[in-house]
Design goal:
379 residues, alpha+beta, six-stranded antiparallel barrel, four-stranded antiparallel sheet, 7 helices
């Protein structure tokens, strides 16, 4: 017993250790308070966030049999690149027939215009002949029967001229309805022929290919998808209790599990969802029951990412993200109050088909008309 009392540390040393421990705890508390007041209280975080993007479905615009598949899953394709080829033989035959009908229509309408001049000359001749012979009836040099025949012939000639003029009045050969109808059929056949080659409307990675060689496909059936990985965004699902300070335009720092915490992404809030995920689910929750239990709801917040960082470290749709929003700046809006004048996503790949169809029509009409023309288009 005496030895234990002898070996016990003196009270002064114990108090000193306790004092140092309390001081360390106090310093840590003060440091955390300063950190919270200066930084932490302006940060809202969630790990319930996922990469989203446009999944562009590739569908044929015409029916056909698949004869070649030019791109597979994971391939990167550029806008306008060929993805799938359908058998073009039937479309080629229909195009040849439409072009022949257009050439025939141009030549027939040219003949109508030429006939109109001949009919006008015939009417003028008969009018002059009648005017010359009408006074001779009184002298007996011309009989009344002969004069009657001349009048009937003039009436018939005027009717033929009127019918012919009705076909061409107010038009030229290239703007005549018959030519325009035939030209529209050429455009339709040409587009059907060119659409046997299915191209990518946008640049991106190929995914979900389910088309097979020899398969008979119908218009509108999905064959594969193209995902533009340079246009992805993040949907972060924040708890409703975290939404008070969120504003559009606030800066965001993100990390992706696929790259670890070493690679940071930067972006900004571009919009808050119009409702919670439960509100837009297939079976919305019905809480008007006696055993209701409150469940904290989450609201999707859309975050735009910096394009340069996406190019250096690409993300894939569906990847998990850790999101931290700096809510210090409260000058932004909580709800989007404007609309964009620009399309969200657009492509010009299909514009070239219409231009090529117009050029083909103009070339056929010009060749059969004898001089260069440009038919009116829908553009």
């Amino acid at each position: 017993m005496a030895n234990e009392l002898t070996n016990a540390p003196p009270n002064g040393k114990r108090k000193k250790l306790l004092t140092m421990l309390l001081a360390a705890c106090g310093i840590a508390a003060i440091g955390y308070t300063v950190y919270w007041a200066a930084i932490a209280r302006y940060k809202v975080e969630t790990d319930n966030a996922y990469v989203q993007g446009n999944v562009v479905q590739i569908t044929p615009q015409v029916a056909g049999t698949v004869v070649a598949i030019e791109a597979d899953d994971t391939d990167y394709v550029k806008a306008g690149q060929l993805l799938v080829r359908l058998d073009p033989i039937d479309a080629r035959v229909a195009l040849d027939q439409a072009e022949a009908k257009l050439a025939t229509a141009v030549r027939e309408v040219r003949g109508v215009f030429n006939t109109n001049a001949a009919l006008s000359a015939d009417v003028a001749t008969k009018e002059a002949d009648l005017a010359r012979r009408a006074p001779l009836v009184t002298t007996g040099a011309v009989s009344k029967e002969e004069l009657s025949h001349l009048q009937t012939a003039l009436t018939d000639a005027r009717e033929r001229l009127a019918q012919n003029q009705a076909l061409i009045e107010g038009t030229s050969v290239e703007t005549n309805p018959r030519v325009l109808v035939a030209a529209a059929q050429v455009r339709e056949s040409y587009l059907a022929y060119k659409r046997s080659g299915i191209t990518a409307p946008i640049s991106g990675a190929v995914a979900k290919r389910n088309v097979q060689i020899g398969q008979r496909v119908q218009a509108g059936v999905p064959l594969m998808a193209v995902v533009p990985l340079d246009q992805v965004w993040v949907d972060a699902n924040f708890k409703e209790s975290q939404l008070e300070d969120l504003r559009i335009g606030q800066p965001v720092t993100l990390t992706a599990d696929v790259y670890g915490g070493s690679q940071e992404y930067h972006g900004h809030v571009i919009g808050l969802g119009a409702g919670t995920g439960a509100a837009f689910s297939l079976l919305p929750a019905q809480n008007a029951t006696g055993n209701w239990i409150k469940i904290v709801q989450r609201l999707p917040v859309r975050i735009a990412l910096e394009p340069d960082e996406l190019r250096e470290h690409p993300l894939r749709v569906g990847l998990s993200m850790n999101v931290t929003v700096n809510v210090h700046d409260q000058s932004g809006r909580a709800v989007t109050d404007g609309s964009s004048n620009q399309p969200v996503v657009a492509t010009t790949v299909f514009d070239e088909l219409g231009k090529a169809a117009d050029e083909r029509v103009n070339r056929i009409v010009s060749a059969n008309l004898g001089h260069k023309v440009a038919l009116p288009t829908l553009n």
